[in-house]
Amino acid sequence: MQKIRGNSSHEAMTDWREIMIETMKELCALRGVSGNEDEVRDYIVSCTKPHANEVIVDVMGNVIAFKKGAKSPKERLVLCAHMDEVGVIITGYSDDGYLIFAGAGSVDDRVILGKTVIIGKEKVLGIIGCKATHLLSAKERETPTKKEDMYIDIGVNSKEEAKKLVALGDTGAFDEDIREFGDGFIKAKAIDDRFGCAVLLELIKTDLPIDCLFAFTVQEEVGLRGAYTAAYHTAPDIALIVEGTTAADFPSSPGVKKVCKVGGGAVIPFMDGGTIYNKEICKKLTSIADENNIPWQTKTYIAGATDGAVFQRTRSGIKTAGIAAPIRNLHSPSCVGKYSDMEAVYNLILLFLEEC
Amino acid sequence: MDIKKSLVEMCNIPGPAGFEEKVALHVKELFEKYMDDTWIDVLGNVIGVRKSKKENAKKLLFDAHIDEIGLIVIGMEEGFLKFAPLGGLDARVIPASGVTIMTEPPIYGIISVLPPHILKDEDVEKNIKIEDMFIDIGLSQEEAEKIIKPGTPGVLSRNVKEFGENKLCGSSIDDRVGVIAILQALELLKDKELDVDLYVMASVQEEVGVRGATTGAYSIAPDYCIVVDVDHAKTPDAKKHEANTKLDDGAIITRGPNMNTSFTDKILSIAQENDIKHQISVIASGSAYNNVRSIQISREGVITAVIGVPMKYMHTTNEVVSLDDINSIAQLLSKTALSKL
Question: Least C-beta-crowded within 10 Å: which of A254, B54, B202, B296?
């Protein structure tokens, strides 16, 4: 694919956007709740194989790919994105055939009631049920229902029937359609972090300026677990974590609590709940963005963590930085991102690689 | 009639309370296949009549409402839409749901709420109020103001699909399913002679306070009326007194002060005599949730009954009904129309 700069022609940008839209739609439609990433992994392996010099799947299930570039850099570099998504995990049955569940990863109780999920290998449709609003007492109306008090209805009437369709430990992914809307926006489940996967898959198709390692990790949402073995195995000098990050740019969010803005460009965090990012790499990223008129912003609220927390402290330590797209409604069935931010992330990484 | 296909088709047409025009035109066309005369009245109710050959025949009315819960845009801030509910929109289940704003062409949006990490601890423990939600339409304030005016209605995104065995789930099934049951009854009655003048009404604005049925019942002035509306089927979190009927257990024959006792007894015996699957629920208060509360006291009074469609998760985006139950209700309606009242 043609290399694209910040000020590329409109035509080339349109091509890039169309390719990105298609890849994002395919990736977000796949189901890969933490621990059951098979569909996503298979897709990533099949997309990377034709372009990479080497592709392996490690014990944890991470996909690690290597692609030779125009030169070998002084410092070994890995680009990392996680392939798992948040969802639900089935922990029990009720006598009348409803499923009991827990969150797989951090899922906001307030956004899942009444939504549908697709569970297990049999792809069973389940509804996260609740009694109707008409039947609520004043107190029930005010208090959010907790996950432990919710249940999933799969349309059967007994425990025996439920057991035939769903096994304990099966995971369920949100069942939401993918929509493009507004001025270059996309809504889908799992944009966190299929967006990062899509960027890495586009990069691996590109003629790269330097040799690059690509780590598509598993189980990020349940404690950065894939990153441990991926970081150990790749043993890089520099790790660049490509993520989707919370944007709360709503009218009623006060000042810094907006965190970052959708449409405001690539997010280069100096710090989050898990990592104080490498100052040298962050500086390099922001300078390159400034020099090339690539829109960027930082995060104004310290929360959450990325695979960076694990990479940074692996072996003798790794220079770690993050580069993210701002995403609204993160960890909900309806994440919202903007293509222009995704382009900014992609372009910035490509330029960064040139200067490594 | 293919019940499943017809229901999905009708549910795919947006029609929140007060903005039912498109659904009304669709239903009018369907009624016309069976009725001698069909019209749309001042408020927007679709009314059809099939006259009996008998002189001075009694008037029997089947009613179901075509409006659904929805929302109405009241303004915009920083490009996000602010909205008020049309009917009993359930604030617990709409965050992160897709909506269709009924502009021409329609605009898609997502109901957004503040994420938990920027809320105060005490606010995380409270349900989000509709007045604190936004619709994200991915536009700037300037663009949004150009294409959307306050007063534009919207609905929850349509996605009616098959669920479990012989069931459907999705939004707006309340109460399109009632209209479908009536249409299926008309199908069953097609070549049969009736001793009653049979009226059907697809009424509007039920969800905002049974307004359509109020004028519709006045103009029809029926002797008997059966309201077909959804009723709560049992879910694990409902207390015994809140929902005691079950999905798949057949037509719900409703008892209570809003329903005429002897007419209800009659329907019950028709169900028993014809082996039609049925169950009984009770609306204890004098003010049922549905159209019956206005129809019963229309003019000099109407002899009323309510046949409920068992439904789980009413007013969510995944309302569940059973196709078998719809068939039972259609049979019960047609047998009642054929019986001597």
Answer: A254
Domain spanning B70-156, CATH class: mainly beta
DSSP per-residue letters across B286-339:
SS-SSTHHHHTTSTT--EEEEEEEEEBSTTSTTEEEEHHHHHHHHHHHHHHHHS
Active site residue B165: no
Alpha-carbon distances, residue B275 vs B186, B233, B250, B271, B279 (angstroms):
20, 21, 11, 6, 12
User: B3-68+172-338 has which fold?
Assistant: Aminopeptidase (3.40.630)
Contacts of A328 in chain B (CB under 8 A): 112, 136
Closest Cα in chain B, distance from residue A258 (Å): 8
Closest residue in B to A328 (Cα–Cα): B112
From the list A111, A246, A328, which residue is nearest B136 (CB)?
A328
ipTM value, please give it.
Answer: 0.90
- Chain B closest-CA separation from residue A166 CA (Å): 13
- For B153-166, the pLDDT digits (tens) are 999 998 899 999 99
**Is A331 within 8 Å of A272 (Cβ atoms)?**
no
Measured CA to CA, the distance from residue B13 to residue A4 in angstroms comes to: 43
CB contact under 8 A, A332 and B126: no
Q: What is the pLDDT of residues B19-66, one digit of tens each?
A: 999 999 999 999 999 999 999 999 999 999 999 999 999 999 999 999
Contact A248 B114 (CB under 8 A): yes
B77-130 residue pLDDT tens: 999 999 999 999 999 999 999 999 999 999 999 999 888 777 777 888 888 999
Domain span at residue A81 reads 10-85+189-354
- Please report, for residues A192, A217, A243, B113, the alpha-carbon distance to residue A221 in angstroms, rounded to integers and kept in the order given: 10, 10, 12, 21
